Protein backbone atom coordinates (compact mmCIF):
# COMPACT_ATOMS: atom_id res chain seq x y z
CA UNK A 1 0.00 0.00 0.00
CA UNK A 2 1.40 3.41 -0.96
CA UNK A 3 0.89 6.55 1.11
CA UNK A 4 2.41 9.16 -1.21
CA UNK A 5 5.06 9.79 1.43
CA UNK A 6 7.60 10.99 -1.13
CA UNK A 7 5.28 12.84 -3.49
CA UNK A 8 7.18 15.66 -5.23
CA UNK A 9 10.55 14.57 -3.85
CA UNK A 10 13.67 13.94 -5.91
CA UNK A 11 16.21 11.30 -4.93
CA UNK A 12 19.43 9.53 -5.86
CA UNK A 13 19.62 5.80 -5.11
CA UNK A 14 22.95 3.99 -5.33
CA UNK A 15 23.75 0.29 -5.09
CA UNK A 16 20.93 -1.55 -6.91
CA UNK A 17 22.77 -4.51 -8.44
CA UNK A 18 19.99 -7.09 -8.75
CA UNK A 19 16.52 -7.87 -7.38
CA UNK A 20 18.06 -9.02 -4.09
CA UNK A 21 19.79 -5.66 -3.44
CA UNK A 22 18.41 -3.57 -0.61
CA UNK A 23 18.68 -0.52 -2.90
CA UNK A 24 16.55 -2.26 -5.52
CA UNK A 25 13.65 -2.52 -3.05
CA UNK A 26 14.20 1.06 -1.91
CA UNK A 27 14.00 2.27 -5.52
CA UNK A 28 10.73 0.39 -6.13
CA UNK A 29 9.17 1.78 -2.95
CA UNK A 30 10.43 5.32 -3.53
CA UNK A 31 8.79 5.20 -6.95
CA UNK A 32 5.57 3.78 -5.48
CA UNK A 33 5.57 6.58 -2.89
CA UNK A 34 5.66 9.23 -5.61
CA UNK A 35 9.36 10.17 -5.80
CA UNK A 36 11.30 10.92 -8.98
CA UNK A 37 14.61 9.11 -8.79
CA UNK A 38 17.96 8.67 -10.47
CA UNK A 39 19.75 5.32 -10.12
CA UNK A 40 23.49 4.96 -9.92
CA UNK A 41 26.02 2.17 -9.61
CA UNK A 42 29.64 1.42 -10.51
CA UNK A 43 30.22 1.21 -14.27
CA UNK A 44 31.27 -2.42 -13.74
CA UNK A 45 27.92 -3.27 -12.15
CA UNK A 46 26.09 -1.69 -15.09
CA UNK A 47 27.53 -4.24 -17.43
CA UNK A 48 25.48 -6.90 -15.73
CA UNK A 49 22.53 -5.04 -17.22
CA UNK A 50 19.90 -5.86 -14.60
CA UNK A 51 19.58 -2.27 -13.44
CA UNK A 52 17.94 -1.35 -16.79
CA UNK A 53 14.92 -3.42 -15.82
CA UNK A 54 14.59 -1.48 -12.56
CA UNK A 55 15.07 1.85 -14.33
CA UNK A 56 12.23 1.03 -16.69
CA UNK A 57 9.87 0.11 -13.85
CA UNK A 58 10.75 3.25 -11.89
CA UNK A 59 10.81 5.52 -14.91
CA UNK A 60 14.33 6.48 -13.82
CA UNK A 61 17.52 7.38 -15.58
CA UNK A 62 20.81 5.68 -14.70
CA UNK A 63 24.04 7.60 -14.15
CA UNK A 64 27.09 5.36 -13.78
CA UNK A 65 29.50 6.48 -11.05
CA UNK A 66 32.37 4.78 -9.30
CA UNK A 67 31.74 5.86 -5.71
CA UNK A 68 35.48 6.29 -5.09
CA UNK A 69 35.81 8.92 -7.85
CA UNK A 70 34.99 12.51 -6.86
CA UNK A 71 34.77 13.38 -10.55
CA UNK A 72 32.13 10.66 -11.12
CA UNK A 73 30.18 11.85 -8.08
CA UNK A 74 30.30 15.46 -9.30
CA UNK A 75 28.86 14.29 -12.58
CA UNK A 76 26.24 12.24 -10.72
CA UNK A 77 24.94 15.19 -8.70
CA UNK A 78 25.04 17.78 -11.48
CA UNK A 79 23.30 15.45 -13.97
CA UNK A 80 20.76 14.34 -11.35
CA UNK A 81 19.62 17.87 -10.55
CA UNK A 82 19.39 18.55 -14.28
CA UNK A 83 17.39 15.38 -15.05
CA UNK A 84 15.12 15.68 -12.02
CA UNK A 85 14.60 19.40 -12.57
CA UNK A 86 15.71 20.70 -9.16
CA UNK A 87 17.60 20.06 -5.97
CA UNK A 88 17.76 16.64 -4.32
CA UNK A 89 15.57 15.70 -1.33
CA UNK A 90 17.04 12.32 -0.49
CA UNK A 91 20.11 10.17 -1.12
CA UNK A 92 20.65 6.48 -0.40
CA UNK A 93 24.23 5.25 0.02
CA UNK A 94 23.95 1.47 -0.37
CA UNK A 95 27.52 0.62 -1.31
CA UNK A 96 29.88 -1.88 0.22
CA UNK A 97 32.74 -4.04 -0.97
CA UNK A 98 35.85 -5.56 0.57
CA UNK A 99 38.47 -7.08 -1.74
CA UNK A 100 39.89 -8.83 1.37
CA UNK A 101 36.56 -10.56 2.04
CA UNK A 102 36.09 -11.32 -1.61
CA UNK A 103 39.51 -12.99 -1.76
CA UNK A 104 39.04 -14.85 1.54
CA UNK A 105 41.80 -13.03 3.48
CA UNK A 106 41.85 -13.61 7.22
CA UNK A 107 41.92 -10.70 9.64
CA UNK A 108 45.55 -11.36 10.58
CA UNK A 109 46.64 -11.44 6.98
CA UNK A 110 44.92 -8.48 5.33
CA UNK A 111 46.25 -6.92 2.17
CA UNK A 112 46.59 -3.25 3.15
CA UNK A 113 46.06 -1.86 -0.33
CA UNK A 114 42.79 -3.77 -0.41
CA UNK A 115 42.01 -2.57 3.11
CA UNK A 116 42.26 1.00 1.82
CA UNK A 117 40.04 0.07 -1.10
CA UNK A 118 37.47 -1.33 1.35
CA UNK A 119 37.48 1.93 3.28
CA UNK A 120 37.36 4.05 0.15
CA UNK A 121 34.46 2.16 -1.47
CA UNK A 122 32.43 1.44 1.65
CA UNK A 123 32.98 4.53 3.82
CA UNK A 124 34.91 7.48 2.29
CA UNK A 125 32.54 7.40 -0.67
CA UNK A 126 29.82 8.55 1.75
CA UNK A 127 31.89 11.59 2.70
CA UNK A 128 32.66 12.25 -0.96
CA UNK A 129 28.96 12.19 -1.87
CA UNK A 130 28.06 14.67 0.84
CA UNK A 131 31.03 16.97 0.15
CA UNK A 132 30.06 17.11 -3.52
CA UNK A 133 26.39 17.71 -2.65
CA UNK A 134 27.46 20.55 -0.35
CA UNK A 135 29.85 22.16 -2.86
CA UNK A 136 27.25 22.02 -5.62
CA UNK A 137 24.55 23.16 -3.22
CA UNK A 138 22.58 20.21 -4.60
CA UNK A 139 20.51 19.33 -1.50
CA UNK A 140 17.13 20.82 -0.71
CA UNK A 141 16.43 22.22 2.76
CA UNK A 142 15.16 19.43 5.08
CA UNK A 143 16.62 16.76 2.82
CA UNK A 144 17.54 13.31 4.14
CA UNK A 145 20.68 11.25 3.52
CA UNK A 146 20.88 7.59 4.58
CA UNK A 147 23.69 5.00 4.42
CA UNK A 148 23.39 1.32 5.30
CA UNK A 149 25.53 -0.09 8.07
CA UNK A 150 26.01 -3.25 10.09
CA UNK A 151 26.44 -3.99 13.81
CA UNK A 152 30.00 -5.22 13.20
CA UNK A 153 30.85 -1.51 13.59
CA UNK A 154 30.28 -1.97 17.36
CA UNK A 155 30.76 -5.71 18.00
CA UNK A 156 33.08 -8.38 16.70
CA UNK A 157 31.89 -10.64 13.90
CA UNK A 158 35.17 -12.34 12.91
CA UNK A 159 34.32 -13.05 9.26
CA UNK A 160 33.39 -9.41 8.61
CA UNK A 161 37.12 -8.48 8.85
CA UNK A 162 37.96 -5.03 7.42
CA UNK A 163 34.32 -4.22 6.62
CA UNK A 164 33.88 -3.76 10.40
CA UNK A 165 36.27 -0.82 10.29
CA UNK A 166 34.60 0.52 7.15
CA UNK A 167 31.21 0.52 8.89
CA UNK A 168 32.65 2.23 11.99
CA UNK A 169 34.05 4.98 9.74
CA UNK A 170 30.78 5.18 7.82
CA UNK A 171 28.79 5.73 11.03
CA UNK A 172 31.27 8.34 12.24
CA UNK A 173 31.00 10.20 8.93
CA UNK A 174 27.20 10.20 9.32
CA UNK A 175 27.51 11.88 12.73
CA UNK A 176 30.10 14.43 11.68
CA UNK A 177 28.60 15.35 8.32
CA UNK A 178 25.19 15.20 9.94
CA UNK A 179 26.22 18.03 12.23
CA UNK A 180 27.60 20.05 9.34
CA UNK A 181 24.65 19.52 6.99
CA UNK A 182 22.12 20.28 9.72
CA UNK A 183 23.77 23.65 10.33
CA UNK A 184 24.13 24.39 6.64
CA UNK A 185 20.82 23.28 5.16
CA UNK A 186 18.74 21.47 7.79
CA UNK A 187 19.68 18.26 6.01
CA UNK A 188 19.70 15.13 8.17
CA UNK A 189 22.20 12.29 7.89
CA UNK A 190 21.74 8.84 9.43
CA UNK A 191 22.89 5.27 9.08
CA UNK A 192 20.52 2.30 9.28
CA UNK A 193 22.15 -0.75 10.86
CA UNK A 194 20.46 -3.62 9.06
CA UNK A 195 20.07 -7.34 9.89
CA UNK A 196 22.04 -9.82 7.79
CA UNK A 197 20.27 -9.91 4.43
CA UNK A 198 20.57 -12.43 1.57
CA UNK A 199 22.17 -10.26 -1.11
CA UNK A 200 25.32 -10.42 -3.23
CA UNK A 201 27.31 -8.32 -0.73
CA UNK A 202 25.83 -10.17 2.27
CA UNK A 203 26.37 -13.71 1.09
CA UNK A 204 29.97 -12.85 0.12
CA UNK A 205 30.86 -12.89 3.83
CA UNK A 206 32.27 -16.25 5.00
CA UNK A 207 29.78 -18.52 6.81
CA UNK A 208 26.90 -16.19 5.90
CA UNK A 209 24.15 -18.81 6.12
CA UNK A 210 25.02 -19.69 9.73
CA UNK A 211 25.43 -16.00 10.49
CA UNK A 212 21.98 -15.27 9.05
CA UNK A 213 20.29 -18.10 10.97
CA UNK A 214 22.01 -17.16 14.23
CA UNK A 215 20.87 -13.53 13.92
CA UNK A 216 17.37 -14.70 13.07
CA UNK A 217 17.21 -16.81 16.24
CA UNK A 218 18.75 -14.02 18.33
CA UNK A 219 16.19 -11.43 17.16
CA UNK A 220 12.80 -11.59 18.91
CA UNK A 221 11.15 -10.20 15.77
CA UNK A 222 13.37 -12.23 13.44
CA UNK A 223 15.76 -10.70 10.90
CA UNK A 224 14.62 -7.59 9.06
CA UNK A 225 14.37 -8.33 5.34
CA UNK A 226 15.53 -6.11 2.47
CA UNK A 227 11.90 -5.12 2.00
CA UNK A 228 11.58 -4.13 5.68
CA UNK A 229 14.76 -2.09 5.29
CA UNK A 230 13.32 -0.34 2.25
CA UNK A 231 10.26 0.65 4.28
CA UNK A 232 12.49 2.14 6.97
CA UNK A 233 14.50 4.07 4.36
CA UNK A 234 11.28 5.52 2.92
CA UNK A 235 10.21 6.68 6.36
CA UNK A 236 13.62 8.31 6.83
CA UNK A 237 13.27 10.10 3.47
CA UNK A 238 9.75 11.28 4.30
CA UNK A 239 8.85 14.49 6.14
CA UNK A 240 7.81 12.39 9.16
CA UNK A 241 11.40 12.15 10.45
CA UNK A 242 12.67 15.71 10.05
CA UNK A 243 14.40 15.96 13.41
CA UNK A 244 16.13 12.57 13.35
CA UNK A 245 19.79 13.10 12.57
CA UNK A 246 23.36 11.92 13.36
CA UNK A 247 22.00 8.52 14.46
CA UNK A 248 22.91 4.95 13.83
CA UNK A 249 19.41 3.44 13.72
CA UNK A 250 19.19 -0.23 14.62
CA UNK A 251 16.94 -2.10 12.21
CA UNK A 252 17.49 -5.64 13.35
CA UNK A 253 14.34 -7.20 14.86
CA UNK A 254 15.71 -6.56 18.36
CA UNK A 255 19.08 -8.34 17.87
CA UNK A 256 21.20 -5.51 19.31
CA UNK A 257 19.30 -5.45 22.64
CA UNK A 258 19.04 -9.20 23.15
CA UNK A 259 21.36 -11.25 25.39
CA UNK A 260 20.03 -14.71 24.62
CA UNK A 261 16.78 -16.22 23.34
CA UNK A 262 14.91 -19.46 23.93
CA UNK A 263 15.61 -20.37 20.30
CA UNK A 264 19.37 -20.19 20.89
CA UNK A 265 19.12 -22.15 24.17
CA UNK A 266 17.16 -24.84 22.37
CA UNK A 267 19.70 -24.92 19.57
CA UNK A 268 22.70 -25.54 21.83
CA UNK A 269 21.10 -27.64 24.62
CA UNK A 270 22.01 -31.31 24.56
CA UNK A 271 19.02 -33.34 23.34
P1 LIG B 1 24.50 -5.57 -2.98
O1 LIG B 1 25.69 -6.40 -3.36
O2 LIG B 1 23.26 -5.80 -3.72
O3 LIG B 1 24.88 -4.02 -3.01
C1 LIG B 1 26.18 -3.52 -2.88
C2 LIG B 1 26.37 -2.50 -3.98
O4 LIG B 1 27.60 -1.78 -3.88
C3 LIG B 1 26.33 -3.14 -5.37
O5 LIG B 1 25.28 -2.59 -6.13
C4 LIG B 1 27.68 -2.77 -5.94
O6 LIG B 1 27.68 -2.63 -7.36
C5 LIG B 1 27.95 -1.46 -5.21
N1 LIG B 1 29.36 -1.05 -5.34
C6 LIG B 1 30.47 -1.79 -5.05
N2 LIG B 1 31.57 -1.09 -5.37
C7 LIG B 1 31.15 0.12 -5.84
C8 LIG B 1 31.81 1.29 -6.32
N3 LIG B 1 33.15 1.36 -6.38
N4 LIG B 1 31.06 2.34 -6.73
C9 LIG B 1 29.70 2.30 -6.68
N5 LIG B 1 29.02 1.22 -6.23
C10 LIG B 1 29.74 0.16 -5.82
O7 LIG B 1 24.28 -5.89 -1.42
P2 LIG B 1 23.39 -5.16 -0.29
O8 LIG B 1 23.35 -6.14 0.82
O9 LIG B 1 22.14 -4.65 -0.87
O10 LIG B 1 24.35 -3.98 0.18
C11 LIG B 1 23.92 -2.65 0.30
C12 LIG B 1 24.48 -2.02 1.57
O11 LIG B 1 23.87 -2.65 2.71
C13 LIG B 1 25.99 -2.18 1.76
O12 LIG B 1 26.52 -1.00 2.33
C14 LIG B 1 26.06 -3.32 2.76
O13 LIG B 1 27.28 -3.32 3.50
C15 LIG B 1 24.88 -2.96 3.64
N6 LIG B 1 24.43 -4.02 4.53
C16 LIG B 1 24.18 -5.26 4.04
C17 LIG B 1 23.84 -6.30 4.89
C18 LIG B 1 23.64 -7.68 4.36
O14 LIG B 1 23.68 -8.63 5.15
N7 LIG B 1 23.40 -7.85 3.07
C19 LIG B 1 23.67 -6.09 6.36
C20 LIG B 1 23.91 -4.72 6.76
C21 LIG B 1 24.29 -3.74 5.88
Q: Can you put this structure into words, describing what you see?
A:
This protein is globular. Helix content is 46%, strand content 15%. The longest helix has 25 residues, at 161-185. The chain has a single domain (10-268), classed as NAD(P)-binding Rossmann-like Domain (Rossmann fold, 3-Layer(aba) Sandwich), CATH 3.40.50.720. The chain has a seven-stranded parallel sheet, with helices on both faces. The mean pLDDT is 96. The protein has 271 residues and is α/β, with parallel strands linked by helices. The N and C termini lie far apart (45 Å). The chain has eleven helices and seven strands. It binds 1,4-dihydronicotinamide adenine dinucleotide. 1,4-dihydronicotinamide adenine dinucleotide binds next to helix 1, strand 5 and helix 8. The site of 1,4-dihydronicotinamide adenine dinucleotide (NAI) has 26 residues, from helix 1, strand 5 and helix 8.
CATH class: Alpha Beta
- The CATH superfamily turns out to be NAD(P)-binding Rossmann-like Domain
What portion of the residues fall into strands of 2 or more residues? 5-15%
- Structural class, by secondary structure, is alpha/beta
Q: List each distinct ligand once.
A: 1,4-dihydronicotinamide adenine dinucleotide
Mean pLDDT: 96
Rg, Cα atoms, Å: 18 Å
Characterize the biggest β-sheet.
7 strands, parallel
What level of helicity do the residues show?
40-55%
Q: Give the count of helical stretches.
A: 11
Order of helices and strands: EHEHHEHEHHEHEHHHEH
